[in-house]
Amino acid sequence: MDPIHDAARALASETVALRRDLHANPEIAFEEVRTARIVAERLRALGLSPRTGLGTTGVVTVLEGARPGRTVIARADMDALPMPDAKEVEYRSRVDGAAHACGHDGHTAVLLSVAHLLTERRDDLRGKVVFVFQPAEEIVKGAAAMLADGALDDLEPERTLGLHLSSMHPTGTVSLRAGPSMAATDSFRLVIHGRGGHAAKPNEAVDPIVIAAQLITVLQTLVSRETDPVDKSVISITSVQGGTAYNVIPESVELKGTLRTFEPETRARLRERILALCDALVSGQRGRLVSEWREGSPAVVNDASATERVRLVAEGMDVVERVVEGDQIMGGDDMALWLQRAPGCYWFVGANGGPESAFPHHHQSFDLDEAALPIAVELFTKAILDALDT
Ligand SMILES: [Zn+2]
Ligand SMILES: [Zn+2]
Fold it and tell me: Is 367 marked active-site?
């Protein structure tokens, strides 16, 4: 007998129906108005009193158990991506240029079902569960916006838990890792100002295209020659804009790029070195650099003992076939900010059930294996109960 398992199963069709509704009506970062309204309505129907409009569209509600105890944050993200949905399914996106291609529709539906299950068990519950429904994960701004808006005011959380459904793992697999598990993500914009002129008289110009070419290559040496090879980091230049004609040297070239790191010291050092090296190189070639740094999210760092607890909970579930050690991922997630408020674990739940749900995240044909949803509900619920009881 496993009442949580049975309850998650019993709620499966409701979880799937909500996920499909959200999937068909995706809303991108900071525009999750309909989604947030549905979340708040469902929470109110459970007898909870959600706070809405946090960091624009975030929703937070606190479930108080009958007995005193710990405070645990349970977080889900709600936003879709600004991209097409190319699937031929009945729940395909009805919104042009928006798609739930990362599975956040699933996260929202799963956490609502978890809230449902735990609310029913309020009389046996010790402590508090803080349910967080976050906007704008895809631009790593929603968590910061909610926190700045006082999402955790008057709360003293001791644990943070969250999950991401994953097409990289088969349904039935759970993947997790202690320590730094997802990278810090920063981005930058570099404008190289030269002096325009005739392509046939480069000596009378300062060619920002040649400077940009050197800069793109030399930036790679900051990772390959200045950073400990064991300490993973990535610098990628992802946009180069400049020039209009075959025979004109342009005035300027604009580069955009991203820095991914795990260690805070490496993050700070590479930021400084990128800017210093670019500045020196550009001025050494008679150009002028204007730079803009956009600080993103810190690394997702999982607490060792919290991760071990989730691992044990997952291993104890019949519907979980395999629990694997996750790889470090150079992608980021602003779950990091919630984890900075209270140590915890962010883990992956396999949602790849075959070719239809095997596309990578952010692919226009991305889909979830919905059989993963009740597994995620059961695991999330049990992990919260475990965190409250230990
Ligand atoms: Zn994503
Ligand atoms: Zn995501």
Answer: no
